[in-house]
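Researcher: Here's a chain I'd like modeled. Treat it as a single chain, no partners, no ligands.
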Amino acid sequence: MKYIQSLQNPQVKHWKKLAAKKEREKTFTYLLEGFHLVEEALKEEVVTEIIVEEGVDLPNRWNTEGVPVTTVTHEISKTLADTETTQGIFAVCRMKKQPSKIIGRRYLLIDAVQDPGNTGTMIRTADAAGFDAVIFGKGTADPYSPKVLRAAQGSHLHVGLLKGDLNMWIEKLNEAAVPVYGTALENGVTFREVNPGDAFAILVGNEGSGVHPDLLAQTEQNLSIPIFGKSESLNVAVAAGILMYDFAMRS
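Model: Modeled as a single isolated chain. Structure tokens:
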């Protein structure tokens, strides 16, 4: 087992760089923190390296055969941590290969949702509702950023994560006979008025401005969720959860 105690060690500097989107996209790797997330990543066989703080024991149930384990000081562990109180366990993981074509029947499209907590929650809900993939449009929080990963609680390992121009993906979904349903406060029908088939995609948008009008113009139908109280709107992750579960249960 390798032991590193200097913050100036090149490997430590590389791990720290993975906090930046540029380095993650350059290396196709990302850093996970915490026992639960590392264990889920080990099950999916995407872990390339485990980093553990000295004095922290790896669970006996973990199969780490063939995975390098490096022990580091508490100071290095704190430097790598994105949480206030770290558990002292990290893993460098490979990103999943992004498919270039539609291979599933249920998709969530996210247009410019900037809050990482909302983004991670939607990934987690999409996984729970049995969706095949989440597609991240321009301006949306990076699915491999530490805060999104923490909010997703390992669900990023179970659903496809696709990025790119949503105009292109909507076109691909239409070609694959997967209708896209947008979300809008105005000029839409109540979501219960739509009868989803076994294939569908749900499009949600920015916390303040909603889905871009150009994207809404390309959908099969735009949907709204009734507001019975005095609130002007629902949180985007809550709205997405309502629609995903409703469509999944009625399809």
